[in-house]
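#dry-run=false #mode=assembly
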Amino acid sequence: MFTKVLISDDLGSINQGVLSVLDNLGINNVQQVQYCDDAYLKIKRAILDEAPYDLLITDLSFKADHREQKYPSGEDLIRALKQEHPELKIIAYSVEDRLQKVRLLMNTYHTDAYVCKGRHGLVELEKAIQLVYDNKNYLSPQVAQAISHKTDLEINDYDIELVKLLSNGLSQEDISIHLKDNNISPSSLSSVEKRLNKLRIQFKANNAIHLVAIVKDLGLI
Amino acid sequence: MFTKVLISDDLGSINQGVLSVLDNLGINNVQQVQYCDDAYLKIKRAILDEAPYDLLITDLSFKADHREQKYPSGEDLIRALKQEHPELKIIAYSVEDRLQKVRLLMNTYHTDAYVCKGRHGLVELEKAIQLVYDNKNYLSPQVAQAISHKTDLEINDYDIELVKLLSNGLSQEDISIHLKDNNISPSSLSSVEKRLNKLRIQFKANNAIHLVAIVKDLGLI
DNA sequence: GTTATCCTTACGGTTTACCACAAAGACAAT
DNA sequence: ATTGTCTTTGTGGTAAACCGTAAGGATAAC
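#status=ok
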């Protein structure tokens, strides 16, 4: 089992639950920090001291305060650490349950597990730790569908990009121009209209505003 | 000091921190629940048994699951309890730090204290408990401004309602009709336009779509 | 009563979104 | 090359959003 674990979570209180889980697994060498930057430094330092951590459990959202941070979120921390130290196991432990974020963390940053804080968060966390120790991944049930490959009901990246541009305040004509500038095809205003119309039908949205609201709620953007 | 306390929070783990705070204050008779409905029933039962709780510490947001709930959020629970049992002291303990919500809870529902979960959440919670016991109120520093009097530049419930209706797919004319049907004033199309325009300026949004996206990202709707 | 101010409502004009249809291009199979 | 199909683009018309302006109403101060 893991022997040296770091917990990163700005709410000090929640760590006590995590600590008891680790204790159950016989893991005693546990440190905790309340800032991502501290986590980064502690992990770096441990490597220099040739006593590296073998597991990081980190929250994603950290309240900003007076301290200027190089890594303001758990996401930033994970990206940096996995790039520099792919061998370090990382479990994300967050209230966030948006599929898009889960997908990003797992597929792009290669996080080892994603556990949703919730009524059964600690139970799931224990499972996650054991699976990650066996070089496997883990996802909380509520976000397990994020990785299943059947989720794609023919909505592609182009479609997502359109809605994202919409949500950023661009008009449909702006979007057309933007696509032309970036040599993305199709780019005509008419095509943009047509695609968005298809999406509206697919998501049963009354208009573009409704569409953006729905797609945001689904966590696709 | 308080003798019988109920804690309501769907994340079981966080309660351990709260428990240790209560322990420090010499409060041992503490129960905890993970659903607002359970909190309501437990409090009602205790009153019938003539052994009422004298303090409730509750979270605001509870993840919905298979169990159908009469009080899906801590807000609903507080409103109901303060209406039926004004003498019961209630402390809201939440990550939520939106002034609008704080104002509603304190001024309208007469919650006794509002503590933000965060790096210093437990310290603040201890202060809150002591002040509430002395029939005073407490607000975490980051939301203390919620009650200060110069808050008129803020967004009110009417504004939020407008954006929410927008995000539900209603056109501005639909919204006008809806407001007229519900005897909410102002209700004219022109007024709806004007309010939304003000909100667009306030949130630096290019158009209604952008506005909805921004407000959703801020978690206001 | 007058004045000033704020809010609500109404109206016209411009821009953008929405929708149906048609033309032009891309592609594969024969 | 021709056919059929699909995608992309263009056009025109209606609805809705956007924006300025102004009329009407309530309120408070004087």
